[in-house]
Amino acid sequence: MKALKGSDVKKIDLLCQEKYKIPTLLLMEHSGLKVVEEIQHYPGHTKFTVIVGKGNNGGDGLVVARLLHLKGFSVKVFLTEENLQGDAKINLEIVKSLPIPLFRDLPSLDRILEETDVIIDGLFGVGFKGTIGGIAKEIVQKINSSGKYVLCIDIPSGLAGDGPMENREIVKGDKTVTLGLPKENLLLSKGRVYAGELVVKDIGIPPELINQYKTDTYWLTEDIVKKLLPKRSQDSHKGSYGTGIIVGGSKGMSGAVILAAHAALRAGIGLLYTLVDRELVNTIETSSYESITLEMEEDLEKFKPILVNYLAKAQSLLIGPGFSTNNREELFIYILNNFPGKIIIDGDGLNLLAKIQDYSLIRENHILTPHPKEMSRIIGLTVEEILKDSINIVREYSKKYRCTIVLKGSTTCIGTKNGEVFLNTTGNNGLATGGSGDVLGGIILGLLAQGLSVEEGAQLGVYLHGLAADIIAEEKGYFSLLPRDLPEALALAFKKLY
Ligand SMILES: NC(=O)C1=CN([C@@H]2O[C@H](COP(=O)(O)OP(=O)(O)OC[C@H]3O[C@@H](n4cnc5c(N)ncnc54)[C@H](OP(=O)(O)O)[C@@H]3O)[C@@H](O)[C@H]2O)[C@@H](O)CC1
Ligand SMILES: Nc1ncnc2c1ncn2[C@@H]1O[C@H](COP(=O)(O)OP(=O)(O)O)[C@@H](O)[C@H]1O
Ligand SMILES: [K+]
């Protein structure tokens, strides 16, 4: 599904008017109807307060107020501004003609909120810019401290539709009904905290317009990833599903390779090799029955001719899980320069990149899978700076390095060399255990080996990884989820998509 920037909303609005002759007033009416439709899922809520700002988000709020009144609910409107314009003004006139109580003075807001079941936030929509101040700031504080159920229209007030999310007063919603298409920041980890449950509602924008409208950010939804699933045929053999190598592990860190290996195998790879230090060989052999273990030699010059043969076995390679960064530089550089296939650089592979600081090693068929700290080591911004504006930062660096970057988190941002960003929201806090990332690397390796491009493998892999965790959580909850449970649950995740 396409994701919009704040500025796209105005453009779409204009296209609706000019090309499809649909006035904004109709879209506003539709928006109000869809918000009310959501409210009706919660019986027992009968008293509503709608907070109305001066823009079209306030106009939507006024439609909601009218429709709730028509349904016989008790509705109060808190107006922040008397002089509304255009369609919002038309809706204010309608509300004024009905027996809906209107309030304007701030001191009355505490009492009104006290008497309400649900607060409907129509203070600011995507037209919000800069920082919040004055009366609006106080209103947001009162909403957030009310303890009442808060439903945000389009976007929580104070949150920008896209771009850096500054720390300031933002409405904390229980639910956000976003209109037409989701806005970029609603899909990021930080924005999701303010949005609460996110519902996307069709408001009558013609599908022709949506299909033709170009965006460079997408929400990874089932319709996108389903198209990426590798095909399996009856008439096939292990050679049909590709060969991969995992280069990783070090003393005390063999588990990372084992997790990645299980994941690659459960992702459907035809044949899997692991390349590890001699002291790990036994451990890997006894834990991963289906993979073939290759042994690393300490003297790189002596090892090179053997290594070249090993590398020739596969089309896809994962380097870094549990690898350690001690004295690995030369081997790492040699592998990156001598493996022509698709490479996933994860964990200590990324730390080695940051140590070597030679980004000319990165090529178009490489995927970097950093968590924010690893990203910070590579690009030199702080974790906070990265999290505040993840979409644009991932876009900038995946274009700059001309590769695919998978910035992991509760929302994972996938940037491609062409500047597209895909946002993944499958997965849950059960994944917040060391080792989950190793599983992700293995899944992507398995998919690349089966012929997916780096862009496709990253998208499908990240989605499946989260979906596997969601499937486990549905049955067993979040606390006890372990990375080792994920490869097995991958079977159910595939089944859900096929
Ligand atoms: N096609 C669609 O999707 C449709 C979308 N619709 C709805 O329209 C919404 C967008 O409406 P919008 O553009 O009128 O702006 P909105 O967000 O209501 O408020 C901005 C107002 O706040 C003000 N303001 C800004 N920053 C401020 C600050 N820091 N502190 C204080 N004030 C500040 C700003 O004032 P200005 O800066 O312009 O003087 C402006 O007046 C959208 O989210 C959706 O709900 C539907 O109605 C129909 C179809
Ligand atoms: N709260 C969360 N919600 C969704 N996904 C999460 C959450 N916490 C972690 N994850 C996912 O778990 C994985 C953790 O990766 P990483 O930090 O590299 O772990 P490790 O290096 O220990 O294996 C990433 O894919 C990330 O997206
Ligand atoms: K809002």
UniProtKB/TrEMBL annotation:
Keyword ATP-binding: yes
Database matches in CDD domains: YXKO-related (cd01171)
Biological processes per GO annotation: metabolite repair; nicotinamide nucleotide metabolic process
EC number of the protein: 4.2.1.136, 5.1.99.6
Gene3D superfamilies assigned to the protein according to its UniProt record, in alphabetical order: 3.40.1190.20, YjeF N-terminal domain
Domain YjeF C-terminal: 221-497
Catalytic activity from the UniProt record: (6R)-NADPHX = (6S)-NADPHX; (6R)-NADHX = (6S)-NADHX; (6S)-NADPHX + ADP = AMP + phosphate + NADPH + H(+); (6S)-NADHX + ADP = AMP + phosphate + NADH + H(+)
Binding, (6S)-NADPHX: 56-60, 125-131, 154, 256, 322, 371, 438
Annotated ranges, domain YjeF N-terminal: 9-211
Binding residues annotated for AMP, in chain numbering: K408, G409, S410, T411, T412, G437
Cofactor(s) required, per the database record: K(+); Mg(2+)
Positions that bind K(+): N57, D121, S157
SUPFAM superfamilies in alphabetical order: Ribokinase-like, YjeF N-terminal domain-like
Note on how the cofactor is bound: Binds 1 potassium ion per subunit.
Key words of the record: ATP-binding, Isomerase, Lyase, Metal-binding, Multifunctional enzyme, NAD, NADP, Nucleotide-binding, Potassium
InterPro entries linked: CARKD (IPR000631), Nnr (IPR030677), Ribokinase-like (IPR029056), YjeF_N_dom (IPR004443), YjeF_N_dom_sf (IPR036652)
Pfam family, one: YjeF_N
GO molecular function, one term: NAD(P)HX epimerase activity
Key word Glycoprotein present: no
Assembly with partners or alone: Homotetramer.
HAMAP family: NADHX_dehydratase, NADHX_epimerase
Function as written in the Swiss-Prot or TrEMBL entry: Catalyzes the epimerization of the S- and R-forms of NAD(P)HX, a damaged form of NAD(P)H that is a result of enzymatic or heat-dependent hydration. This is a prerequisite for the S-specific NAD(P)H-hydrate dehydratase to allow the repair of both epimers of NAD(P)HX. Catalyzes the dehydration of the S-form of NAD(P)HX at the expense of ADP, which is converted to AMP. Together with NAD(P)HX epimerase, which catalyzes the epimerization of the S- and R-forms, the enzyme allows the repair of both epimers of NAD(P)HX, a damaged form of NAD(P)H that is a result of enzymatic or heat-dependent hydration.
Family that this chain belongs to: In the N-terminal section; belongs to the NnrE/AIBP family. Belongs to the NnrE/AIBP family.
NCBIfam families: yjeF_cterm, yjeF_nterm
Listed name of the protein: Bifunctional NAD(P)H-hydrate repair enzyme
Annotated organism of origin: Anaerobranca gottschalkii DSM 13577
